[in-house]
Each structure stands twice: as C-alpha cells, then as structure tokens.
Amino acid sequence: MAKATKLDAVNIVLSNIGQAPVVNLESGNPMVEMAQLILDEVSRTVQSEGWVFNTEYGYPFTPDPTTKEIEISDNVLSLDTEHLSTYDAQIRNGKLYDRGNHTYDWSDQINLNVVWEFDFVDLPEAFKNYITVRAANVFAGRSVGSSEAVRFGQAEELQARAGAVEYDTQQGDYSIFGPTNAHNRYNSYRPEFALYRYS
Predict the structure, then answer these.
(1) Which is nearest to 9 in space by CA: 18, 22, 1?
(2) For a Cys-Cys bond, which of 9, 19, 58, 74 suits 132, CB 3.0-4.6 Å?
C-alpha cells in the first residue's frame, strides 16, 4: 500500500466536480493548477493551527555571529516565546524581531515554540485525507459554484477532521495535569491575557 501523494490528492479534488484524473501535475491544465493552489492553501491553513506533528517546543534559534540577526526560514508558520520568557519575539522581514527592545539584534540563542509547514507528502495520512477533502469542497465552491457538491462533501469533511483530531490526541498524549513528556506543554487559561488585549 503506497502513501497518498500530491497527485492523488489533486485527482480527488478534480473528481469532486467530475473532472477526469491526470497522470502528472505539469499538464498545463488550468483546472489542475487551480486544484494545486487550493490544496496548498488549505494545507497551509490547516497546518497553521499547530498540531502535534508540526509543533516543536523550545526549538533553539542562534543569531548570526556577524550580524547578530536570526533569519527565519519560510517554512515557519508561527512562533512564540516560551512561558515566562522575558523576550517578545515575532517575525518581521524574514527575521526575528525583539518587539520589547525594538531591535533585530540578538546576543544569545533563544528557544521558541515553533509551528512548521511541511510538504504534503510528509504529512500524516490522517491530515492528508482531511486537507484533501476540505480542498475538494473549496475547489467545488470556487470553480463551478456547486453548492450541492459542497453540501455533499461537508459530512465527509467533518469525518476527515475528526480523524485528524483523533490522530493528534493519540500522538499528543495531552493531559490537564501538565507535561507528560517533552512534547506536551499544557498552559492553563489565563484571563488576564484577554483583559490586557482589550484594555
């Protein structure tokens, strides 16, 4: 049994509106290109939520010894400082910016919680399935405006997301009692953050 490829996913997306499958992704067919773009868009959106397979805690970022700047690669979807960190780091102009000190200069290594973006082929099968089904619904709605096809696929999309959530909870070993391993960091709800935002 072979794992699902991007070509497999694109053909499923195309089949949702009755299009014939293609044998490669470089066919020059505008519908195939549109299907790929939507698949990439949905993949990025889903991965941006941050799941157990693409989230790392305390990942080290080291500044360049000459410029003292930290370049951030394009496959970083989001990052955040660890709990109780004295830094306020964010991405600006492809580099790590210290918002608290208003500078791009970093004298030391900083550990951050990172959400990565992976290529479709490297995703867990449960997430490939969810992204494909969701992309097929988006494609049907945008390409031919088929509300019937979208409605038909909504139940399938809910099932696919449930499968992705099931995978995430099994792999994450989440607990309300705090970390159970190096990959599970539980932070309780802190209402002062919400109050601070609107004050």
Answers:
(1) 22
(2) 9
